[in-house]
Amino acid sequence: MAAPNNPHDADFRQVFGQPRPMAVLLRIVLPAPINALLDLDPARLRFLDPTHVDPELRGTASDLIVEVPRREARGSPANSAIFVFAVEHQRRYERFIVFRQRTDCVRIWERWLRDRLRGAGADTVSKTLLEILQAATRPEADELFEQWTARLAPLRDEPAGVSTLVAALWYLLNVSAVPDPRIVAASEALPEPARDSFMTGAEQLMQRGLERGLIKGREEGRQEGEHAALAYIVLRQARQRFGEVPPEAAERIEASSKAELERYIDAILTAERLADLFG
Which of 7, 9, 25 is CA-nearest to residue 89? Predict the structure, then answer.
């Protein structure tokens, strides 16, 4: 049973339930490395109702839950993030308080995530993720891939949703019948740093498969996967060296033989123009 409200709790909530005092309190109690990450401008703090987060917190009137944005480096909005703090006024020792607070924090995160995903269409997202789990290994996955990515696209605008989108793409890359280059191309729409992290991991995965001759498992699939991995490496190196690769050049690279792709990988180190690869 929750403890009854008392004047101490009420006073704490009244004083620190305002943006400016809460900002000061967080600056005082949080470690310097955490403070350095936070944008503690009172105008950017947002209080969450504990009863809205979890009905079981209804009796803890001293609880304050505040959402604080990350301090963004100039010109780096892609690194945005949200911190959610549960601040509790505790005057007496309480056994197992660490366990209770940890449980409450998990509930807060779960409710915050559900609310955020609802803004992106939680039903559509959930159905799409379930469909991916059911159909990823089927031949029709290649045809459904464009629909899946379109339905999950709103997750790119949600800090919590990006990790869900990355997990879905990574799952497809590992188990699905969707060609690896299509999945990698879709990952280019991810915000940084998720995009770079995913593409680096994907490149390493395909390179390992190329080296071990295990891409797709069977010999026929291995040869197809080996070709796709080589084409991806050439395209990635070409973009890094020459910038945007015209569609006709990308198509030519993807249609090239294994021997031609291997020659492109060697030639790109000294080529002055993209056209030099095909000379």
Answer: 9
Reported pTM = 0.38
Do 148 and 193 meet the contact criterion of CB atoms below 8 Å apart?
Answer: no
The angle that helices 7-16 and 19-29 make with each other, rounded to 10 degrees, is 100
User: Rounded to 5 degrees, what angle do the CA atoms 26, 60, 56 make?
Assistant: 115
**Domain range holding 257?**
122-278
Q: Is residue 68 a contact partner of residue 44, using CB atoms and an 8 Å limit? A: yes
Structural domain contains residue 220: yes
Tell me how far apart the alpha carbons of residues 117 and 152 are, in angstroms, rounded to a whole number: 10
Mean pLDDT to the nearest integer, 138-155: 89
Task: For residues 109 and 136, state if they share a domain.
Answer: no
Q: Report angle CA 47, 77, 198 to the nearest 5 degrees.
A: 110
Within 10 angstroms of residue 209's Cβ, the number of other Cβ atoms is: 19
Q: How many domains does the chain have?
A: 2
Q: The sheet that has 46-48: what strands, in order across it?
A: 46-48, 64-69, 82-87
- The identity of residue 34, as a single letter, is I
pLDDT, tens digit, for every residue of 55-81?
554 444 446 888 888 887 544 444 456
